[in-house]
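Worked problem 6 (solution included).
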Amino acid sequence: MGELRHVDEHLNTCDYVKLECPNECVFDEATQFLRKDLQKHLKEECPCRQYSCPHCKETDKYEYITGEHIEDCPKMIIECSNAPHCKTTFPRETKHAHLSTCQYQEVACKYSEFGCEKMPFRKDLQEHENDDNAHLRIAMTTVLTLKKQCMLNTQLQCSHMKDQLIKIFKMPSFKEKQTNNNEFFSDPFYTHPRGYKMVICIDPNGYDNGYDEYKGTHVSVWVYLMRGEYDNQLEFPFKGTIKFELLNQLEDKNHHCESYTHNGTEDCSMRVIDGERSNGAQGVQDFISHKELGHNATKNCQYLQDDCLVFRISVDVLSYKQWLLCTNN
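Solution. The predicted structure is:
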């Protein structure tokens, strides 16, 4: 017991006064500690007290050193990841150096590129690689598999090309176009994936070349190059053969066929810069006479049926870049 006037002086030294941790920590949900316990807390319990890593001597807060830091400490002694086969221990910072020579590290065989999937221990690698017969069988299997896959890919590519290089379209109202002297244009199409853009023109009365040689007696067919989406990657002038077929609408034979080859010297083989299509066209002026369009009982053939003609166009392109032919979109 003491005098009341000495109470403030007493509180400054009283062991049972609660004080805040100077590190502003939270320990077991407490932020205040009795004066008599504070020193012990600061030395042994405070998670924010300064603490040196026992391995590398880095100093920081106790909670950091014993938590996040210890997981990456370069000086900490660890066990080889190939345990229990390898019993070596070493500082964490030398882990990669150890694994580069560890005899129990699994390593790829030099024949892995030829299909060997085994991963022997480094100590057994030489013996494994000396098994020539096993690796020859693996290599042969891999080669045969690749050969089959290559053949399949080639077949698929050729099938895809064939689908792309053939265009079938109908020309309706033939007699009306013939009477009014109107040309007919097909829908534009591409010669192959990422290829040349074209359009076919059918003149039901034949092209007037100034001499009226076939005017009014024949059907003419023409092809125009168009400005296409892939022209920047294509070769110009265009070179290739275009096959025009007028289909027999009674059976699948006796179709009327003519071809025209662009050799690259024609003006209409050049890239279209101005407008949507080339100024000139190339084709077959005397493709078929009007007399041949009707029914031919001897050949069981009829090209004009229900006032409609059916054309099939196929294009053999000689100037494309093969590496662009079947690129995925």
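Discussion: Confidence is low (pLDDT under 50) at residues 158-164, 325-329.
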